[in-house]
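Exam review. A common question shows you a sequence with its structure tokens and asks you to describe the fold in words. Practice with the pair below. Do the first one on your own.
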Amino acid sequence: MFNHSKPTKGAAPSQRAPETSLIASGTAITGNVRFSGALHLDGSIDGSIQAEPDSQAVFTLSEHGRVTGEIRVPHAVINGVVKGDIHAGERLELAPQARVEGNVHYSVLEMAAGAQVNGKMSHAGVGGPQRQLAAPEEEPQEA
């Protein structure tokens, strides 16, 4: 009736998918959040969001989500409102509905048309020095 097959010798053990936490729409958290695995936010957080050190954690902010505070994670996908700095150690994706009021620090950046950042954007290569994107030069005005 049930198939109880034994794993073949030499087969690699199955890898567990990272655990995902969901903060649903209508949920508001006041305070700092620390997580590992994956965190998906549809609600709001008034406080910092930080991934466990040396993790491959992923933070996803939906178009309905809102964060007022600093975000420090290796991987982030932002499609909602952030009022605070974002530090993405490895990869940051700013989706079309992203609205960021704060500085953005990233190693790899993907920014969709429509995403907005009101702050400085700083690139930090993996293990390398931080670089800041230059502001556009003003053209001399004719008298």
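Now try the second one, then compare your answer with the model answer below.
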Amino acid sequence: MERSGAVWVGFSEHLGDGNKHQVPLVQRGKGQIGWLDGPAAEYPRYYQGFANSILWPALHSLPDRISGSEEDYKSYRDVNAFMARAVSELGDNAVYWVHDYHFLPLGADLHRLGIDGRSAISCIRHGPSLT
């Protein structure tokens, strides 16, 4: 990111009301980092309910550990749509590299918002793993 000029976007350690979609960007070398507060009302069902209780076991060949609900799936889709709206504010001249199973539907959500993707690299990842 620092050498390529990529834009890295992820959720901060804080939760918000889900109304803030603008990603504040901080320069890091040639690239930028943006932290977004996840929507508090949907986040537990999105993260624990769907991503970690359904997707994680399914993607790690542990079907006996899968548990969840339709509400968890709805929250998962709502949080992905929230992230897509926020990232779409960055413009459509980027190639979006979605780097986490927490965001599997994000590409389709971006496409529905008219984001085509062309030249730079953006990495969208869950959690504050970069400092």
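Model answer, second protein: The chain is about 35% helix and 25% strand. The helical segments are 43-59, 70-88, 106-112. Full marks require stating both points clearly.
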